[in-house]
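ESCALATION

Customer reports they have been waiting on this structure for their group meeting. Please prioritize. Original submission:
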Amino acid sequence: MATLPTQAIAGYNAVSEARCEGARISSSMSQAQVESALDSGASTATFCFAPGTYRMSLTPRNGQTLIGEPGAILKGTRIATGWRRNRVGIWVLRNATFNPIVKSPPFEGSERACEAIPENCHYADLFKDGVRLRRVLRDATPPRGAWHWSYVKDRVYVNTKDPRQALMELTDRNTGITTGGNNLIDGLTVMHYGMHGIYTMAGDVLRDVEFAWNHGYGFRLGGNPAAIIGGHTHHNGQFGGFCAGANKTIDGLELSFNNNLHFANSTGGYWGAGAIKCVQTTGLIVRNVFSHDNFSDGFWTDINNRGVLYENNVMVRNERFGIFHEISCSVEVRGNVLRDNADDGMYIHSSIDADVHHNTFGGNGGAAVEVNDNLARKADCATHAGSYGNKIHDNTLNGDAVMDIALPPARNEGWSNA
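Update from on-call: job pushed to the front of the queue and completed.
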């Protein structure tokens, strides 16, 4: 099994605060030149990205280190120039030949997050002076402030003031960095990509990375093991991040204003969108995370997670739950602050063996902790369906309630809280 580099976990600010020592990469280099440098570099090579904007996608070799100096930004958009106004006053950009990822109805499974606003599942954006414009479909005369992309005609239509007097940026890449495994990515800002800011493999560490304004996911943490240390993921359209598999560590990450495009199913449920969702994990550690003001939950562990630890996190002002633990098994939740969320501080659904203790609640729109179940749903790690074996104790509630509406409630225990 791959192992994480020790230096990437212990004293993780050491490299970021020191001058980068390695091969110099400049924003004046083309994507072909940067890729050539990565391809010809040793598997142990370090590459130092100077301040500037890099409009490209990268695929480092296994074992390489990419360090962004302050102000080094990877962008998945191109500068869109050549706008012409048509006879009805709509500005038109021709030769827009990039084909973004599109999910089309009927929407099933996680794609039900496309139901409420189908435009969201065209994974591309148009930014005007850094502001994401509202997308519409099948409309060559979009309403004021909106835009449309005709893939058949390779044209973009926008109804704004003269775009020639603004910085117009149009998605033309799906993923910022697709790692090769055992990579250390440090200090870069990764933004404006269609689907993923960074897609990881086994052994990767993402340290002090900023993921911002990507249409789909800030990051997708795949491969076993993998870690995110520090950093900030914010204003991503669908998810701030996603993780799956064994031995994931998320430590010191800030998540804010994710699901910025309000992905939801037809009844308003978030389904497949929010700050972050982790599925099918074993040994997941979520520590020192600050998750706030997201348009869904602060953190969501859904489907067959076991051996999860939530420790010393702050989950506040999220639009649904602070923590959502669903169709999963053993989880310990200790030392967290779960306050001022629109619904429950923590919601445990169809899950077993949660130990929730020494946390601080208060001001949540629902309960401090709610335990519920659906007797038709069962985690693979459970012997039977429902919620049972959960202990909620020694927490500070500050007026919030603890609700056990699992069937029957007696299968849960230890309801002693201040």
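Sent to customer with the following note: The longest helix spans residues 31-40.
Escalation resolved.
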